[in-house]
Amino acid sequence: MKSKTVSIIISTLNRHKVLIQTLKLLLQNISSFMEVVIVDQSKYVPKDFLNFICEHKKIKYIRQNITSVPEGYNLGAKKARGEIVLHLDDDVIPSSRLVDFHRKHYSNERIGGVTGRVVEPYNNNVWTTGRVNYITKTGDVIQNLTIKEKSETNGVSGGNMSFRKSLIGKAGYFDPSFIGNAFRVETDFSIRVRELGYKIIFEPEAATFHLSAKEGGTRKTRENAPRWYYEYFRNYTYFFFKHGNHLYFPLFLIQKKIAVIWLKCIILGLIRWKKGFFIGFRIPLKGLYDGYKNYQKQYKEVI
């Protein structure tokens, strides 16, 4: 059976230096993929980066004049020529056979997506067994991405995920209603792929080491922290109402993850503003409200 062709897609925002490092590592195994599609949402692009792109024919470079994680995923998939689209973060060290371990699962026609192991430098919780990307009743996702056992899973990790290109449109594309940090956008898409009757596989041998670049992207920084907290609660609430049982909303509100992030936002407020407690408390509350209103707008639900 002829092997499936693979297009690697990398969406990037103001991370050209580390992206060059990632691309150099990928190009060491250039025969394993058809192309690398770069979707660049940066306002400024360094000349040395453009020169690097021009030196490599397998790199397809696209500028996108909006800042949106799901729109970057969607444009990359639309422009890709491969039968499989493999999305990677722009700041990773890929394992040498990353592409091969993704591709091998697509010989099974019931496999719609594959996600790989992600090693995070700041994560001290190393799990060897258990469920991967398990979605709870409250909308939380138990990732356990250090596990070394292959298994079926509920969802993917955005920095190391692949899908059949033919399914991207059938599943409705990545939802642009997830704004900013786009928290839970990949889980949302995974659910819709599974609703089409396809399975998603966790393949630990398809591994990446995530460098977690401090600059660029949509990661939380001192400057954008208030906005990041708002986006987190807005996206998480939208995801819950889109896919969860609404009767569990009280449990959603009191889960540990929500409480911890809310407390961090309040502490940030106390440190940075005169009316710190009020502002720090209000940011998550507005995110919750706007996430629910966005759900109502999208699905016209009347309660």
Helix percentage range: 25-40%
Per DSSP, the total helix count is 10
Write down the overall geometry. globular
- CATH architectural grouping of the largest domain: Alpha-Beta Complex
Along the chain, the helix and strand elements come as EHEHEHEEHEEEEEHHEHHHH
Strand fraction? 15-25%
Instruction: Measure the end-to-end span.
Output: 52 Å
User: What does the oligomeric state look like here?
Assistant: single chain
Q: How confident overall, as mean pLDDT?
A: 91
Q: Tell me the Rg in angstroms.
A: 19 Å
Number of strands: 11
Secondary-structure content class: alpha/beta
CATH topology of the largest domain: Spore Coat Polysaccharide Biosynthesis Protein SpsA, Chain A
**Number of structurally distinct domains:** 2
Give an overview of the whole structure.
The protein is of the alpha/beta class and 303 residues long. It is built from 10 helices and 11 strands. It has helices at residues 16-27, 47-54, 69-79, 98-103, 165-170, 185-195, 225-243, 249-254, 256-272, 276-299, and strands spanning 6-12, 35-40, 59-63, 84-88, 92-94, 111-119, 134-135, 141-142, 151-153, 160-164, 199-210. The strands form 2 sheets. Strands 1, 2, 3, 4, 5, 6, 9, 10 and 11 form a 9-stranded mixed sheet that branches. The mean pLDDT is 91.
Question: What is the topological layout?
Answer:
Blueprint: E1 6-12, H1 16-27, E2 35-40, H2 47-54, E3 59-63, H3 69-79, E4 84-88, E5 92-94, H4 98-103, E6 111-119, E7 134-135, E8 141-142, E9 151-153, E10 160-164, H5 165-170, H6 185-195, E11 199-210, H7 225-243, H8 249-254, H9 256-272, H10 276-299
Parallel strand pairs: 1-2, 1-4, 2-3, 6-11
Antiparallel strand pairs: 4-10, 5-11, 6-10, 7-8, 9-11
Helix pairs in contact: 7-9, 7-10, 9-10
